[in-house]
């Protein structure tokens, strides 16, 4: 048995890729890549289609969502003018506590 981690299998933990939320993929990817860069863990040499595609898909989805949110905010600001209240940049469930 190899002491090298399989990037995708480590993140998925036996689940189907559609069952793992993008936020979990991003957090696990950041941790694994940071540990790999610092030499704490070793990973198998990946092939894009079966390892990093998981991370790229999560990043692509997040980028699309953020782009749509920015466009909606810009449209709302251009319609309401400068007297409008400042828009919330995060969904209600993610607002930081005051």
List the strand order in the largest sheet: 1-2
In one word, what is the shape?
elongated
How large, in whole angstroms, is the Cα Rg? 19 Å
Sheet with the most strands, sense and barrel status = 2 strands, parallel
List the helices and strands in order: EHHEH
Distance between the termini: 50 Å
Overall pLDDT metric = 83
Proportion of beta-strand residues? under 5%
Number of helices: 3
Class by alpha and beta content? mainly alpha
Helix content: 40-55%
Low-confidence stretches: none
Work out the number of β strands: 2
Mind explaining what this structure looks like?
This protein is mainly alpha-helical and 98 residues long. Helices cover 52% and strands 4% of the residues. The radius of gyration is 19 Å and the shape is elongated. The N and C termini lie far apart (50 Å).
Features:
98 residues, mainly alpha, two-stranded parallel sheet
Topology:
Elements (H helix, E strand, L loop, with lengths): L3 E2 L1 H6 L9 H16 L4 E2 L8 H29 L18
Helix pairs in contact: 2-3
Summarize the structure.
The chain is about 50% helix and about 5% strand.
């Amino acid at each position: 048995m190899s002491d090298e981690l399989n990037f995708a299998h480590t993140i998925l933990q036996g689940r189907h890729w559609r069952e793992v939320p993008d936020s979990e993929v991003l957090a696990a990817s950041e941790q694994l890549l940071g540990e790999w860069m610092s030499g704490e863990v070793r990973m198998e040499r990946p092939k894009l289609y079966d390892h990093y595609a998981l991370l790229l898909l999560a990043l692509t989805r997040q980028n699309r969502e953020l782009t749509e949110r920015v466009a909606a905010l810009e449209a709302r600001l251009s319609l309401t003018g400068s007297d409008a209240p400042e828009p919330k940049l995060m969904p209600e469930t993610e607002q930081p506590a005051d």
